[in-house]
């Protein structure tokens, strides 16, 4: 079975970002994101892609944009114009990661079978939000609290959700 995995960090109020930037600095979460996604294809919206200084190393980037004239000089990137096109382009991949932003997460929630969420234990003013996790659709498999420390101003919890099996 193909794995479509959503990976995100969201605040208690589901805030993801503001003005195309993250709202917090969590080095251990960055390390986890890198460890999980390295070697895989990552699917994202154009604004998420443009928030990076350069493409992330050792990952193939599929960028979704409505702009038919959009292009990028980077060879480890492909441009598509819908999530459906992104899935078609990556159909031979066993695992793909959806990495944002808010609109792409909302569209992908129906297709994903795993959520790797970092829940940031604070609330923020934002312009981009993670969709609500419906407990009838998703089951929390595991969680691991990371307390605030000298490198992390706020505590956060790594949470892994799996899609609930439909009862017959």
UniProtKB/TrEMBL annotation:
<dbReference type="GO" id="GO:0005829">
    <property type="term" value="C:cytosol"/>
</dbReference>
<comment type="similarity">
    <text>Belongs to the dihydrofolate reductase family.</text>
</comment>
<dbReference type="InterPro" id="IPR012259">
    <property type="entry name" value="DHFR"/>
</dbReference>
<dbReference type="GO" id="GO:0046655">
    <property type="term" value="P:folic acid metabolic process"/>
</dbReference>
<dbReference type="GO" id="GO:0070401">
    <property type="term" value="F:NADP+ binding"/>
</dbReference>
<keyword id="KW-0554">One-carbon metabolism</keyword>
<keyword id="KW-0521">NADP</keyword>
<feature type="domain" description="DHFR">
    <location>
        <begin position="3"/>
        <end position="163"/>
    </location>
</feature>
<protein>
    <recommendedName>
        <fullName>Dihydrofolate reductase</fullName>
        <ecNumber>1.5.1.3</ecNumber>
    </recommendedName>
</protein>
<dbReference type="GO" id="GO:0046452">
    <property type="term" value="P:dihydrofolate metabolic process"/>
</dbReference>
<dbReference type="GO" id="GO:0004146">
    <property type="term" value="F:dihydrofolate reductase activity"/>
</dbReference>
<dbReference type="InterPro" id="IPR001796">
    <property type="entry name" value="DHFR_dom"/>
</dbReference>
<comment type="function">
    <text>Key enzyme in folate metabolism. Catalyzes an essential reaction for de novo glycine and purine synthesis, and for DNA precursor synthesis.</text>
</comment>
<dbReference type="GO" id="GO:0046654">
    <property type="term" value="P:tetrahydrofolate biosynthetic process"/>
</dbReference>
<dbReference type="InterPro" id="IPR024072">
    <property type="entry name" value="DHFR-like_dom_sf"/>
</dbReference>
<comment type="pathway">
    <text>Cofactor biosynthesis; tetrahydrofolate biosynthesis; 5,6,7,8-tetrahydrofolate from 7,8-dihydrofolate: step 1/1.</text>
</comment>
<keyword id="KW-0560">Oxidoreductase</keyword>
<dbReference type="GO" id="GO:0006730">
    <property type="term" value="P:one-carbon metabolic process"/>
</dbReference>
<dbReference type="Pfam" id="PF00186">
    <property type="entry name" value="DHFR_1"/>
</dbReference>
């Amino acid at each position: 079975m193909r794995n479509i995995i959503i990976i995100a960090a969201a605040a208690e109020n589901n805030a993801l970002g503001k003005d195309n930037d993250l709202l917090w600095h969590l080095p251990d979460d960055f390390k986890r994101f890198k460890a999980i996604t390295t070697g895989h294809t990552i699917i994202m919206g154009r604004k998420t892609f443009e928030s990076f200084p350069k493409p992330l190393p050792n990952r193939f980037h599929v960028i979704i944009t409505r702009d038919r004239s959009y292009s990028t000089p980077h060879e480890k990137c492909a441009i598509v114009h819908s999530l459906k096109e992104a899935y078609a382009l990556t159909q031979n991949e066993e695992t793909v990661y959806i990495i944002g932003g808010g609109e792409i997460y909302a569209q992908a929630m129906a297709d994903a079978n795993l959520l790797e969420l970092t829940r940031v234990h604070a609330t923020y003013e934002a312009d981009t939000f993670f969709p609500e996790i419906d407990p009838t659709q998703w089951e929390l498999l595991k969680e691991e609290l990371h307390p605030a420390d000298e490198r992390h101003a706020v505590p956060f919890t790594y949470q892994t959700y799996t899609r609930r099996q439909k009862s017959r």
